[in-house]
Amino acid sequence: MLENPKRYTITAALPYTNGPIHIGHLAGVYVPSDIYARYLRLQGRDVAFICGSDEHGVAISMKARKEGITPQEVIDKYNGIIKKSFEDFGISFDNYSRTSLAIHHQTASDFFRKLYDNGKFIVETTEQLYDEKAAQFLADRFVTGTCPKCGNLEAYGDQCEKCGSSLNATDLINPKSTITGTTPVLKSTKHWFLPLNEYSDFLQKWIIEGHKNDWKPNVYGQVKSWIDAGLEPRAVTRDLDWGIDVPVDGAEGKKLYVWFDAPIGYISSTKEWAEREGKNWEDYWKKEDTKLVHFIGKDNIVFHCIIFPAMLKAEGSYILPENVPANEFLNLEGNKLSTSKNWAVWLHEYLVDFPEKQDVLRYALTANAPETKDNDFTWKDFQARNNNELAAIYGNFINRVVVLTNKYYNGIVPTPNEFNEIDQQTLAELKAYPAVISSSIERYRFREALGELMNVARLGNKYLADEEPWKMVKENPERVQTQMYVALQIASALAILSEPFLPFTAKKLCSILNIKPNHWNLEFENWNLVKAGHQIGQAEILFAQIEDAEIQKQIDKLEATKSANDKEIASSKLATIMPQKETTTFDDFQKIDLRIGTIIEAEKMPKADKLLVLKVDTGIDVRTIVSGIAEHFSPEEVIGKRVTVLVNLAPRALRGVESQGMLLLTNDTNGKLVFVNPDAEGVNNGAVIS
Questions:
Q1: Distance between CA atoms of residues 263 and 89, nearest Å
Q2: By the 8 A CB rule, do 354 and 375 touch?
Q3: 335 Cβ partners below 8 Å, 6+ apart?
Q4: Which pLDDT score is estimated for 139?
Q5: What whole-number distance in Å separates Cα of residue 591 and Cα of residue 624?
Q6: What gap in Å lies between CA 155 and CA 677, rounded to an integer?
Q7: I need a surface site. Which of 19, 163, 192, 235 has the fewest CB within 10 A?
Q8: Is the distance from CB of 16 to CB of 39 less than 8 angstroms?
Q9: What is the dihedral of CA 259, 261, 262, 263, to 10 degrees?
Q10: Which SS3 state, helix, strand or coil, does residue 274 take?
Q11: d(Cα 395, Cα 463) in Å, to the nearest integer?
Q12: What local confidence, expressed as pLDDT, does residue 570 receive?
């Protein structure tokens, strides 16, 4: 680990400009990275907090086709919405760029060219799906068909979103082009690949051995799983009409793969910032005394921990990330956030319904951050966080202190008298909090750090509740001077400590206390806390109560979305009923051996969200079957279920477990898997279906 870095390069995942930003993006990447950057700046560190819009790739082209506009119009539209959302929520990027800018195109082209000139790529000719009517090769997302694993009729060419299986477009049954609706053909095409297998030893030593104890378990585990499974060459170019041209002869009509050009966007954005600020960008990417940290969601772990580091290693002059503190996913009211299904809380809409409540959302998302596992955002919890914590604890303490100071001393900080044991103990506790919070932030435990911040407010509330200056002010005014002085030290400390987490509140609190934000020094004596004789301002409400009606409005909005999605799914199912397959012979049917069975054991497959490992009594034996049903059924739900089993399917190893058959399932109109099983009593395990 890098001790005492001279400077910090902090990157936040580039958001895709095919839609606005929602709370999942904020919770997973942008609030934690902003907390970290703000904290470091308060300590006087040299920080480059870098981001920008990811404006290439097939998702942009798909959005443009769907909306009937050009890709440029798509990225211009959503870049504006995204950038404003970040500004509105106080995400304090030092630079927010765009991958469509000339500086990025040049940077990405130069990077590719250096690897190309140094022989770091291999060239392969592969067969890919081609739409003859549109006269173009089809990117994975421009192909849909039936998943060969679960039978989902609407699987994409890169992944089935039902069972979670990673696919190649050529794996799909009955593939169709989403552009013309025609059946594509196979056609040969040449591409350049980065041979990741050649970097396995480097990655093994750097991550598996070097970062075992300091990287988050969810990140380390996913990377280890990929490396253990064996890395393969990965294409860095593809046949597209939108993106950065491949800068070599013989690559006409080909673009850099978006996963290759997007992380280089961090470098080009840093270049743009450094040129504006009169700095040397290479110091932030090539100096060994620079600490590089990537903030991402879990869906980007492989790209930032395996592929991008391999690219940097191949180039040869760049530093590697010290840490990649990826978060898990945030769900919404028990369901996965979905841009396509409008199941989201959009940031630009949130501020319309909750004006000037940026910090409430920042607080709720950090307090419930998916740091080690997926977490759920609910509007009721959001309301409780505001009313029971921010308003009742933090806001209540500040209001008491400011109101009493104005009432007793006309807003002038009183001179303390002798500190008793309680005062000394309270100030000692206060003095310890900066280091405690700092330690949590340095270890990327932002939820824990926020909890400690709230403990500072709790310390103040408890002190006032125990001391009760309002009861003592007439009989012992000298004692009250000391009490209010101590309370004001806590309030002013909160103004500084809150800035990384609640920047709008911290700014307002500094205004109320008439102080300037100061550096986050761990030595309490060096803090610019309020001195005796200092004039503070009047009380303002920091956190207003959020009423039930406001929350119900949001819940109703989601219910309306859910109803609309249900209708669309039902309609889609009716419209996409799988056509009859080619006629088969009786002899072919006779080869299939379908039996009735009972699931007698079930458990989750380790490190696999989609898979259950089942023991099934087929009547002829008890065998292991691995099934991609874990998102629809818990292990407890399926034990004892009667099922239909294809018993003579060739065994297949899935994540090291041999699966000896397949269960028959179908989907209901809501997309949930349903077992195809016998309802009649008296049907024994092993009974043949004919």
A1: 24
A2: no
A3: 343
A4: 83
A5: 21
A6: 25
A7: 235
A8: no
A9: 90
A10: helix
A11: 15
A12: 59
Task: Catalogue the E-assigned strands of 195-343.
Answer: 234-235, 237-239, 254-256, 290-295, 330-332, 335-336
- Three-state helix/strand/coil letters over 433-481: HHHHHHHHHHCCCHHHHHHHHHHHHHHHHHHHHHHCHHHHCCCCHHHHH
Q: What's the pLDDT at 682?
A: 62
Q: Classify residue 211 by its DSSP letter.
A: S
pLDDT at 571: 59
- Say what the pLDDT of residue 674 is: 79
645/665 Cα distance (integer angstroms): 10
pLDDT at 334: 93
* Predicted local confidence at residue 680, as pLDDT: 58
State residue 646's pLDDT score.
92
Nearest residue to 261 (alpha-carbon basis) of 14, 583, 613, 526? 14
| Beta carbons of 9 and 290 less than 8 angstroms apart | yes
Token readout for 667 is 């989907």
Please work out, in degrees rounded to the nearest 5, the angle formed at the alpha carbon of residue 603 by the alpha carbons of 598 and 607: 145
Inter-CA distances, 165 with 140, 371, 461, 627, 639, Å:
14, 25, 52, 11, 24
Question: Which amino acid, 475?
Answer: E
Angle at 192 between CA 189 and CA 194, to 5 degrees: 140
Which residues fall within 8 angstroms of residue 666, CB to CB, at 6 or more apart? Answer: 151, 673, 674, 676
Cα 21 from chain centre:
11
Rounded Cα distance between 86 and 13, Å, is 13
Instruction: Please give the single-letter amino acid code of residue 457.
Output: A
Containing H/E element for 571? Answer: helix 548-575
Indicate the helix (H) or strand (E) that contains 304. Answer: none
Integer angstrom CA distances of residue 102 from 70, 255, 272, 276: 19, 15, 11, 16
Q: Contact 485/420 with Cβ under 8 angstroms?
A: no
H/E element, 412? none
Return the axis-axis angle of helices 308-315 and 102-117, rounded to nearest 10°. Answer: 70
The predicted pLDDT at position 671 comes to 59
- Residue/partner pairs of 446-452 with CB below 8 Å, 24 or more apart: 446/31, 446/32, 446/35, 446/36, 446/366, 446/369, 446/371, 446/501, 447/366, 447/367, 447/368, 447/369, 447/371, 449/35, 449/501, 450/363, 450/366, 450/367, 450/501, 451/367
Q: Which two tokens stand for residue 5?
A: 């870095």
| C-alpha span between 211 and 209 (Å, rounded) | 6
Question: Measured between alpha carbons, how far is 670 from 632 in angstroms, rounded to an integer?
Answer: 12
As given in the structure block, the two tokens for residue 34 are 């902003």
Q: What are phi and psi of 23, to 5 degrees?
A: -65, -25
- Mean pLDDT, each 10-residue run in order, the chain (690 residues): 90 95 96 98 96 91 88 95 96 98 98 98 93 88 88 84 75 91 94 97 96 94 94 92 93 92 97 98 98 96 96 98 96 90 93 96 97 95 98 98 98 97 96 95 97 98 97 96 97 96 98 88 73 96 97 95 73 54 78 90 86 92 92 88 91 88 76 70 65
- 127 has which bridge partners? 188
Q: What is the DSSP string of 15-72?
A: PBTTS--BHHHIIIIIHHHHHHHHHHHHTT--EEEEEEEB--SHHHHHHHHHHTS-HH
**On the CB side of 329, how many CA atoms lie within 13 Å of its CA?**
12
Give the separation between CA 318 and CA 282, rounded to whole angstroms: 9
> What tokens appear for 192 in the block?
């350049």
Q: How far apart are CA 156 and CA 78, in angstroms?
A: 24
Query: What is the DSSP annotation of 536-569?
Result: P-----SSPPPPHHHHHHHHHHHHHHHHHHHHHH
Q: Helix, strand, or coil here: 679?
A: coil
